[in-house]
Amino acid sequence: MLAGLRRRGHVLAIATGKSRAGLARALDSTGLRPLFVASRCADQCAPKPAPDMLLELMAELGTSEANTLMIGDTVHDLQMAAHAGVPAVAVSYGAHAKADLAARTPLACLDSIDELTQWLEHNA
């Protein structure tokens, strides 16, 4: 899915509650590092749900709220997106319950990577 997004010209970035060292370990162990052009971690700026991570990433990448999509698995992700004025999609296969995510009114609340892939193919 991530490689497909990159092939279609999407710029991928990460806004995470992990530390910089934790993110580096995760990217290295999965081999996903080359797919992402930028990232912000909890030890670099204000933590979620503050909008700082997304605002800094958008500034670095020269993009606007309208051209940004936050995909998150926590209420904090969706709150951060709302605070930054960025649309969001929730994925229910992560940290928070689907009902809690849906209550934040994301564009969609998806239950699998296959559903997310299909949604992105039609909407991104």
Q: How would a textbook summarize the main sheet?
A: 3 strands, parallel
Number of strands: 5
Fraction in helix: 40-55%
What is the global morphology? globular
Q: Mean pLDDT across all residues, rounded?
A: 96
How many helices? The count is 6
Order of helices and strands: HEHEHEHEHEH
Radius of gyration: 14 Å
Structural class: alpha/beta
The first-to-last residue Cα distance is 12 Å
| Spatial ordering of strands, largest sheet | 3-4-5
Please mark out the parts with pLDDT under 50 across 5 or more consecutive residues, or reply none: none
Strand content: 5-15%
Report on this structure.
The chain is α/β, with parallel strands linked by helices and 124 residues long. It contains 6 helices and 5 strands; from the N terminus they run H-E-H-E-H-E-H-E-H-E-H. It has helices spanning 2-7, 20-30, 52-61, 75-84, 98-102, 113-123; strands at residues 13-16, 38-41, 70-72, 88-91, 109-110. It starts with a helix and ends with a helix.
List keywords for this structure.
124 residues, three-stranded parallel β-sheet, two-stranded parallel sheet, alpha/beta, single chain, globular, 6 helices
